[in-house]
Amino acid sequence: MSPVICLLEGDGIGREVIPAARRVLEVLCPDLSFVQAEAGWETFQREGTALPERTVDAVAHADATLFGAVSSPLGPAEGYRSPIVDLRRRFDLYANLRPVASQPVADSRTGIDMLIVRENSEGLYSGIERRDAERAVTERVITRSGSERIVRRAMDLAMERRQHVTVVHKANVLRATCGLFREAALAVAQEYPRVRVDELLVDAAAMRLITAPESFDVLVTTNLFGDILSDEAVALVGGLGLAPSGNIGESVAVFEPVHGSAPDIAGKGIANPVAAFGAAAMLLAHIGRPHDASVLRTAMARVLESGARTPDLGGDATTDEVTEATLGAMEELI
Ligand code: NAI
Ligand code: MG
Fold first, then answer.
1. Is 146 left (phi over 0), alpha (psi -120 to 50) or beta?
2. How far is the CA of 61 from the centre of ligand 1 (A)?
3. Mutation test of ligand 1: which of 16, 44, 230, 240 has the most ligand atoms closer than 8 Å to its C-beta?
4. Start-end of H helices in the chain
5. For the chain, what are the domain ranges?
6. How far apart are CA 16 and CA 268, in angstroms?
7. Residues forming a β-bridge with 201
8. What is the CATH number of domain 109-236?
9. Mean pLDDT of the chain
10. Measured by CB atoms within 10 angstroms of the end CB, which terminus of the chain is less buried, N or C?
């Protein structure tokens, strides 16, 4: 049966980079079928919800979803909830994956090829908070089952890579929460004798990302630490215009560029589509098309090397020109 891909363009440059990614996917995998659905700030303004039920249905029924970016309201907007956060909750998309690899651009360091696996459903983002005028408390919820499933995911992914996992925590201070995460991680590690497992305190990990990023293969960590470290890591390899990510649950997976809706350049036709192409490549690997994913990645690298780059990378190419160049490079590879 032909896989169904749900496309959520969202707002701003999401409307430019997702159609570009669709063109690439259509050429690479002519058997895919696409459904388009709405989400985001403009949808909220029109319908009073940023994630209509029909969109939730479309995501639930697709084999995977490609999400662009959404704008957040600048002022108070009663009833507004971020659709990506909403999707993570509704479908329990507990694993956030961020591949970070050297790119053939001047701003990228060389020798880097890592995957950051961030727990995406608990930790300090539990939303359980209380405050009065003088004191505020956020509960950091860590469960054994939540820790085990994210570490198992990281181990499985490491088996397809260089079989090295670094568990990042702060168990020397956060003895209860990080202590449980660490304990669960080391127990799961016993199930994977072929994976080399080490651990790092989060502050040391932040430093090592700058001093020796090539020493990492897979990093696995809790929600807040992963959020911070994964943005830090993206800055090592060329920045937002190139960075893809995935939100994975048991039955639903949503892939997206890391960047937002970029209102400063939206509508100008100069958004860098490479991050969205990278998200499309992750999607292809996820739906069991690793060969197509690698063709796309090779084509993306060739295009960057050829110098067809958008202004964020110092070039003068448009979104369309980079897309055409990528289609051309793919045709040579297929
Ligand atoms: P942003 O990622 O949209 O833009 C930051 C800077 O990077 C801007 O100068 C932008 O022009 C540039 N940039 C980003 N992606 C680019 C691309 N593909 N090609 C070329 N340049 C690119 O972050 P910002 O400005 O903080 O947020 C803008 C809006 O996006 C806000 O409403 C924010 O809430 C939302 N946002 C949404 C996200 C999502 O949907 N997952 C993630 C981050 C922000
Ligand atoms: Mg972030």
1. alpha
2. 28
3. 240
4. 14-28, 41-47, 53-61, 83-90, 144-159, 177-189, 202-211, 223-234, 274-286, 290-306, 319-333
5. 1-97+239-334, 109-236
6. 9
7. 169
8. 3.40.718.10
9. 96
10. N
pLDDT tens readout for residues 231-260: 999 999 999 999 999 999 999 999 999 999
Q: Which tokens in the block code for residue 71?
A: 């704008």
* Cβ pair 124, 224 in contact under 8 A: yes
3-class SS at 40? coil
Report the amino acid identity of residue 15.
R
Q: What is the position in ligand 1's atom list of the atom closest to the CA of 74? A: 32
Ion ligand 2 neighbours, Cβ < 5 Å: 227
Contact between 69 and 9 (Cβ < 8 Å): no
Local structure of 50: helix, strand or coil: coil
Q: What is the pLDDT of residues 86-117, one digit of tens each?
A: 999 999 999 999 999 999 999 999 999 999 99
Calpha distance 208→197 (Å, rounded): 16
- Name the token pair of 286: 């996820």
Specify the CATH number of the domain 1-97+239-334.
3.40.718.10
- Between the CA of residue 76 and those of 73, 81, 104, 324, what are the distances in Å? 7, 11, 41, 41
Say if 1-97+239-334 and 109-236 have the same CATH topology.
yes
Query: What residues line ligand 1, using a CB cutoff of 6 Å?
Result: 13, 69-72, 84, 240-241, 256, 259-265, 271-272, 275, 310, 312
